[in-house]
Amino acid sequence: MDGAQQRVVIVGAGQAGSRTALALRQEGWQGAIVLIGAENEHPYERPPLSKDVLQGRALPGDATILSAEQCQDQGIELRLGEEVRRIDPRARRLHLHAGRAPLHYDHLVLATGSRPRCLPLPGAGLDGVHVLRTAADALAIAARLEGGMRVVLVGGGFIGLEAAASARLRGCRVTVLETAPQLMARVVAAPIAERMMALHRGRGVEIRTGVRIDGLEGLREVRRVRLADGSAVDADIVILGVGALANDGLPVSAGIRCADGVIVDRYGRTSAPFVYAAGDLARHEQLWGCGNVRLESWENAELQAREVAGALLDRPAPERGAPWFWTDQFDTNLQIIGFGRARGELVMRGSCDDRSWCAFLVSDGRIQSAVLHNAGRERRVVAQLIERRISVSARDLGDIGRPLRTLAAAA
Amino acid sequence: MTWQFAAHLTDLPPGEVRRVMIGDEPVALYNVEGEIFATHDICTHAHASLADGYFEDGMIECPLHQAVFDIRTGRVVSGPTSRNLPTYAVRIEDARVLVQLSGPGAPGRA
Description:
The complex is a heterodimer. By secondary structure, chain A is an alpha/beta fold. Chain A has helices spanning 15-26, 68-74, 135-142, 158-169, 190-202, 249-253, 298-312, 379-387, 394-398, 404-410; strands at residues 7-11, 32-36, 76-79, 84-88, 93-96, 103-104, 107-110, 114-116, 129-131, 150-154, 173-177, 206-208, 213-217, 224-227, 232-234, 237-240, 244-246, 262-264, 275-277, 282-287, 290-294, 324-329, 332-337, 345-349, 357-363, 366-373. Chain A folds into three domains: 3-115 and 244-312, 3-Layer(bba) Sandwich (FAD/NAD(P)-binding domain); 118-240, FAD/NAD(P)-binding domain; 342-409, FAD/NAD-linked reductase, C-terminal dimerisation domain (Enolase-like, domain 1, 2-Layer Sandwich). Chain A has a five-stranded parallel β-sheet with strand order 3-2-1-7-19. Chain A has a five-stranded parallel β-sheet with strand order 9-16-10-11-12. In chain A, strands 22-23-26-25-24 form a five-stranded antiparallel β-sheet. The N and C termini of chain A lie far apart (46 Å). In chain B, strands 1-10-9-4-3-2 form a six-stranded antiparallel β-sheet, with no helix packed on it. The two termini of chain B are 17 Å apart. Chain B has strands spanning 4-8, 17-22, 25-32, 35-40, 54-56, 59-61, 68-70, 76-78, 87-93, 96-100. Chain B is built from no helices and ten strands. Chain B is globular, with a radius of gyration of 13 Å. Chain B is mainly β. Classes of the chains: A alpha/beta, B mainly beta. The interface between A and B is medium-sized, with 17 and 14 residues.
């Protein structure tokens, strides 16, 4: 094997990039691995940032993915705080910042992730206006969350609601502003969003949906959020959680096919030979029956890391099942299997007022997607019902006296 | 090195996992085809009771975020954590399950 002489360079040391490095070693890659990260911290998990880190219960470093020790053990050359200027796919070379020699690669994995979308609003540049993406972002916000602070979340998606819960748990006065008529509109059906809204309101979070924001006001520091109806919400801190954009500047300038994200096949291959992409950056041509999707999820980064490693070693990873997402808000754990906005009839298993319940979107006698509310124990069997396209009746699904595994077994 | 009572064997059917408290320590007991194993009950990733998770083939999956542990060794098999799960020595005496909370495999040594 000439693989031992080859070099994989991974650009981006978040979940997708670091896990690709580890997966390559696990799968037996003998050659060099260079992992380049723009941030200065060792690679860390992002999910705790909006929860444990904002709540002051953990530091980003508590969830390190790749320690110095692991890098040494695994033979991974980690370069932190380094910037890649340009990719030359023909010469298979990366140009780094001034003064550094270009870096040759045999295979290149792009995992530069995504960045928070900024709103073109007056006042968005005021002090006290934050986004939440990196360890540094989370620490900066966490340092300011004290009892009585007025925190306004712009955006009622996962990030906004998780941050709202964390701020509330720290005694802040919290308002969530959402433009859409419902919360988490991209990921769950309206009745589920309503349940989550009730959870937040019950814990003292003020939520306003269907609002339009005109701007942020203040002299140097943000003081209030001005709405289109003329009203205003006072604020000491504003956190923008209005989605993310792919960091695809490098591949775009290198002529690699992109459309808010690098377009990849199911092995993470891009339009350029020897170039792969993984994680938030990748836009899947096809995924779980959906065309043209970019997934910003922990699971996607994890699985795509393995898929890319497998493709590089000519050992294809198994085909993916239904996508899986989770969010933790207050003491509620919400898991989504499949695409939560699939079409179908909503079937409840258990009552929305209970602590634990499941909701299914069913069409043609098959579950298209499911939401598990404090019911992670059912995840395996629900995933099985969905992935094996097992025929189910709404009545059986809704019958809590009938264990779900009997439905899977009966098929 | 004390052996402490954890459960009656008859309360642990094969293929099942159960949470018990031994003093202040939440412990998960597993029956793998008649053989009993014990681990710490709280996932090393987030605060969740593993006994509420999905148990199959000697693996426990956390109900919150899918961390999977091999219950014999406590090792992480997959999922969002790299911290292994503490395991405890188990002994059966007169159909009683006894667990040793200190000693090899106890928290801090895993």
